Amino acid sequence: MSKKLVGELLKGRVALVTGSSTGIGIGILRQLAAGGATTVMHGLEPEAALQQKAAAIAAQYGTIVGTNSANLLHPQEVRDMIARVQEEFGRLDILVNNAGIQHVAPVHEFPEEKWNAIIEVILNAPYHATKAALPAMIDAGWGRIVNTGSMHALVASPFKSAYNAAKHGVAGLTKTVALEVATKGVTVNAVCPGYVMTELIEKQLASQAKTRGIPKEKVISDVLLVDQPIKRFVKSEEVGALVRHLCTDDAAAITGACLSIDGGWTAR
């Protein structure tokens, strides 16, 4: 096991985390920055807001934090995002495909445009980003790709057909790419969190309450946490700590794994 201090674990590495201006993503980015990595915060917020958040994290951890606002619905913007990071920082060692969107509805009422958008952001964007980032990682003989899979990459919940389908696809993509680059010094893994109280979850509460005909408090206790044995939300920094470990040299033999961090959800 490495005896490096936490702040030196990823020193000299450059990491891009998609969807990292809020929620799980910012928790991951913070932990990578705490590990000494130069990081790139990605989000669709106005540039000034992104830069303000990035500056705060840079000041806290004494690292460089760049920004990018690519729209992941558009494959060319995904490819341009990877190229821009490589050009600006000279390399991209760590790619965390984390961005996600959600819509909750029975499948027979599910809007096609919502389905397409969810698949595009959660599944297609990681494919395009991975494809663009891999050649340089292979040439360098070192790389880390981590996908945020969710426990919905492993099990399903009703009314989330597109999300479940996309996340299951992420699990398959993770395993396939891991096998393809297993001898190249590049690892590919997925972290599968249980429910984390993020802006995405907060937005779901009202729609879940309406769909199920119950108060929001009941959605939390009887829907979201009913199958999460620890009976609390997973913390974004806990997810980030797992991602950080996967990005270290100590985790070089961990690849093709979909690692649950779900408070026991999938242990049943």
From TrEMBL:
Output the GO biological process annotations, alphabetical, semicolon-separated. Answer: monocarboxylic acid metabolic process
The family database entries (Pfam families) matched by this protein are listed as: adh_short
Question: What EC number(s) are associated with this protein in UniProt?
Answer: 1.1.1.100
Specify the enzyme's EC class, one word.
oxidoreductase
Q: What chemistry does it catalyse, as a reaction equation?
A: a (3R)-hydroxyacyl-[ACP] + NADP(+) = a 3-oxoacyl-[ACP] + NADPH + H(+)
**Annotated pathway, please?**
Lipid metabolism; fatty acid biosynthesis
> InterPro entries in the record, alphabetically?
3-OHbutyrate_DH, NAD(P)-bd_dom_sf, Sc_DH/Rdtase_CS, SDR, SDR_fam
Any one GO molecular-function label of the UniProt entry = 3-oxoacyl-[acyl-carrier-protein] reductase (NADPH) activity
Family of the protein in this entry? Belongs to the short-chain dehydrogenases/reductases (SDR) family.
Q: Which PANTHER family match?
A: 3-OXOACYL-(ACYL-CARRIER-PROTEIN) REDUCTASE, 3-OXOACYL-[ACYL-CARRIER-PROTEIN] REDUCTASE FABG
Recorded hits in NCBIfam families, A to Z, give: PHB_DH, PRK12429.1
Q: What's the name of the protein?
A: 3-oxoacyl-[acyl-carrier-protein] reductase
Q: Which organism is it from?
A: Chlorella vulgaris
Lineage of source species: Eukaryota, Viridiplantae, Chlorophyta, core chlorophytes, Trebouxiophyceae
